[in-house]
Design a protein that fits this description.
Helix 1 packs antiparallel against helix 11 (about 270-280) and helix 10 packs across helix 14 (about 335-350). The chain is mostly helical. The chain has one domain (about 5-435). It contains 18 helices and no strands.
Length: about 425
């Protein structure tokens, strides 16, 4: 890695960890405020499922478009800024269209939902839809900063959002006003406020002027998205499928305890998300100049020991920390937390570079990998859930993350040598050409 890349990586990783950690603190305050007794755990379960719905939908809508833009936007911003702005506008139009489709599906669900667990979610659907829209708009600003490698602005915008969210949640906490509906309303309001302020301040002027969307840009994006939308839809479902299955089969109280443990265990994923912001614009260059293998070995030499040390610390401190942070009602979930954390740390130690290589240069392989992940979660997770309860689901997630991480490692190494990159149809360039 160059010194410039290392500096950017340090800025993004440390900055985003610090700021996104504020959102995790806010989430933990919500779980603590809701889950004071068994009835409160049921409310915490509804909150876990509502946030899962938002993140699943956001993953389906936002992540494929971000990856599609990373293929060309970084170089276009340097060579032809007007063309880059046109490409960003086309991606924004597609993002709004996908948001409308998801919103329609959720509103139809609310209208058709019968009894049981599904009926309890109906009053939250309106807030869930608004939260999905807010996330899509915010990420539309963030992707422009990422593509332009304006990492200082990216970190500051992320920080403004997380500080605002935390302040609003603290206000609800101190006033004793925490409910699922109010927390979702705070999420929506803070995201829309920061998006508006950040968009006006940070986006290039060319993007803010009214302009037509070029059909060629839409065609190029769709040629990539025909692979990545299915892959990211499955990946987004996979990310929260365990919470949904626990809610459906074990009830809201079990989902509340499991969701809180998952939130705490997935804190380490902040690092992976931060690293991807730096790696994605550079992965094509690594492939082109043959430096992928050396960068991967360097990364693994640091990430492996750090992951092992983090797990050892968690084994010693998990029970007292969870009791202190979330309350004693969540302490029975410590084994769930440890299994989930072990899988998260292994994923973080192995996948950042291989995942970027596969998703950007072989999107059809990404579909196959995410399907494999779905099968593992459904088969292994459900089998162990039936025998070991929510601890079994956590064990299933551990098996899934380890297995898929090893698969990505092998595929990334293969692609780094120029093998296995499919050719896009519909006027798109091949992955090999895009990586030059």
């Amino acid at each position: 890695m160059t010194r410039h890349a290392a500096r950017d990586g340090l800025l993004v990783v440390t900055g985003r960890i610090a700021f996104v950690a504020l959102w995790f603190i806010a989430i933990l305050l919500v779980y603590r405020g809701l889950g004071r007794d068994e009835a409160g755990l049921a409310q915490a379960g509804l909150f876990a499922v509502a946030i899962a719905c938002v993140k699943i939908a956001s993953g389906c809508i936002v992540d494929p478009g971000d990856l599609a833009l990373m293929r060309r936007a970084p170089t276009l911003l340097r060579s032809d800024p007007a063309a880059a702005c046109a490409l960003f506008r086309a991606a924004f139009v597609l993002r709004l269209a996908m948001t409308a489709i998801v919103a329609t599906a959720l509103l139809a669900f609310a209208a058709l939902a019968g009894g049981g667990h599904a009926a309890a979610l109906v009053p939250l659907v309106g807030w869930i839809v608004l939260a999905i829209l807010a996330d899509a708009l915010f990420r539309s600003v963030m992707v422009v900063l990422q593509a332009g490698e304006r990492f200082t602005a990216l970190v500051l915008l992320e920080g403004s959002l997380q500080v605002t969210r935390l302040l609003v949640i603290l206000l609800l906490w101190t006033g004793g006003w925490i409910t699922v509906e109010r927390v979702l309303a705070a999420y929506c309001a803070s995201t829309l406020l920061i998006t508006l302020a950040g968009g006006v301040r940070l986006l290039p002027q060319g993007m803010l002027r009214p302009a037509t969307v070029r059909r060629a840009d839409l065609g190029e994006l769709l040629a990539f998205l025909k692979w990545m939308v299915p892959a990211m839809m499955i990946a987004a479902v996979n990310e929260r499928l365990d919470v949904m299955l626990v809610y459906a089969l074990e009830g809201a109280d079990a989902a509340g305890r499991y969701g809180a443990m998952a939130t705490l265990a997935m804190t380490a994923d902040i690092v992976a998300g931060s690293l991807s912001s730096v790696i994605q614009p550079r992965i094509a260059r690594m492939r082109g100049d043959g430096s992928y293998g050396a960068n991967l070995r360097l990364f693994l030499s640091f990430s492996g020991p750090v992951a092992v040390l983090a797990l050892l610390l968690a084994l010693m401190l998990a029970a007292p920390v969870i009791g202190l942070v979330l309350g004693q009602s969540y302490v029975p979930g410590v084994p769930v937390f440890l299994w989930l954390l072990a899988g998260t740390l292994f994923w973080l130690a192995v996948t950042p570079l291989p995942l970027a290589m596969v998703t950007i240069h072989a999107p059809s392989l990404a579909v196959a990998v995410t399907l494999c992940q779905t099968v593992l979660v459904a088969v292994v997770g459900l089998t162990l859930l039936a025998t070991n309860g929510i601890v079994g689901m956590a064990q299933g997630i551990f098996v899934t993350r380890v297995g898929v991480a090893l698969l990505l490692l092998a595929l990334g190494q293969r692609l780094s040598h120029g093998k296995g990159a499919p050719v896009f149809g519909g006027g798109g360039a091949s992955c090999r050409e895009a990586g030059r």
